[in-house]
Design the sequence.
């Protein structure tokens, strides 16, 4: 079995448990501690921020600043201008592609 | 029931547009799989069985950077802890037989929760949850398939068309709405700094997992002044 297949099976099982615990175990009568809910809702923010950084600035465990930086900046401007998600992603790709075309 | 018909039409429109909005993200996921050398069936395995966008991206990003299986799974699971909170909050709207609840739980994602939560009645919440979840499920898997099969043909397509830049852009898009809130902004900044510092000194995957530590700084459990908390 490849590494990817192992990750798929175990991650799918774990993810499913997280998804299903609410509908299956908790009804109107049972409640998770409120503090845990707060942590669970805040947790994605630092993780996603870290994923922005790792997917934009890393290449096999080293810091790399390449044309992806241009794409990320373009995406930030597009988001700031309140453009739709679809457009934001396309702008990032186009900006990066043009930068590469011009400078490499 | 005329009025409810129009509510339901609005729910369906919302569900389909949210699915379409995620299309480029699905394409980017397929591209990432192609880049990481993951096969078409494995890419679809992620999209159908894991079915949690940011978790899938995180796990495959870790694998693409030669991270370990454990790091990939941990990163994916940490990102998906929120679906536990979603599930608990939506549970009252998702009643039914055990089998039914077990099946529809797979659709517990950000988007189905968002469509459901915008409704006030229990029936419409459930309707929104199902439409949101199914719409995203179908489009997500379709776009993953296109991404992995079309974009794996030539590896240079990914860099020539800047498709690798769609991934950080998509992550940024996902947290952008959260950044309006100062607590989230602080947590995001600290998380990003932790990752930036750790990238060159730890194995792949660790920077993302360690970024979770940012919430220790912000201490969300202290934010709400509860009765037991002063």
Sequence:
């Amino acid at each position: 079995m490849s590494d990817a297949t192992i990750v798929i099976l175990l991650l799918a099982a774990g993810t499913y448990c997280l998804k299903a615990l609410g509908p299956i175990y908790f009804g109107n009568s049972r409640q998770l501690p409120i503090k845990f809910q707060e942590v669970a809702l805040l947790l994605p923010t630092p993780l996603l921020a870290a994923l922005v950084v790792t997917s934009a600035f890393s290449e096999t465990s080293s810091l790399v600043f390449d044309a992806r930086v241009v794409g990320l900046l373009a995406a930030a401007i597009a988001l700031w201008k309140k453009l739709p998600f679809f457009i934001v992603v396309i702008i990032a790709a186009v900006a990066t592609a043009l930068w590469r075309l011009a400078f490499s | 029931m005329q009025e409810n018909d129009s509510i339901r039409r609005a729910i369906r429109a919302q569900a389909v547009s949210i699915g379409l909005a995620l299309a480029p993200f699905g394409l980017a996921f397929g591209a990432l799989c192609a880049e990481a050398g993951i096969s078409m069936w494995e890419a679809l395995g992620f999209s159908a069985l894991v079915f949690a966008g940011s978790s899938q991206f995180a796990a495959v990003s870790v694998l693409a950077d030669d991270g370990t299986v454990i790091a990939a799974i941990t990163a994916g699971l940490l990102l998906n802890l929120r679906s536990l909170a979603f599930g608990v909050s939506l549970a009252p709207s998702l009643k039914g037989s055990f089998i039914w609840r077990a099946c529809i739980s797979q659709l517990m994602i950000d988007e189905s929760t968002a469509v459901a939560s915008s409704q006030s009645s229990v029936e419409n919440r459930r309707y929104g949850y199902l439409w949101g979840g199914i719409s995203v499920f179908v489009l997500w898997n379709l776009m993953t398939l296109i991404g992995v099969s079309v974009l794996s043909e030539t590896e240079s397509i990914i860099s020539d068309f800047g498709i690798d830049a769609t991934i950080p852009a998509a992550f940024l898009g996902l947290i952008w709405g959260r950044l309006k809130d100062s607590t989230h902004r602080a947590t995001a900044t600290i998380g990003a700094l932790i990752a930036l510092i750790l990238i060159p000194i730890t194995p792949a995957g660790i920077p993302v997992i360690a970024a979770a530590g940012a919430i220790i700084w912000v201490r969300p459990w202290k934010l709400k002044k509860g009765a037991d908390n002063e």
About this structure: Residues 225-230 of chain B have pLDDT under 50 and may be disordered. The first helix of chain B runs from residue 2 to 21.
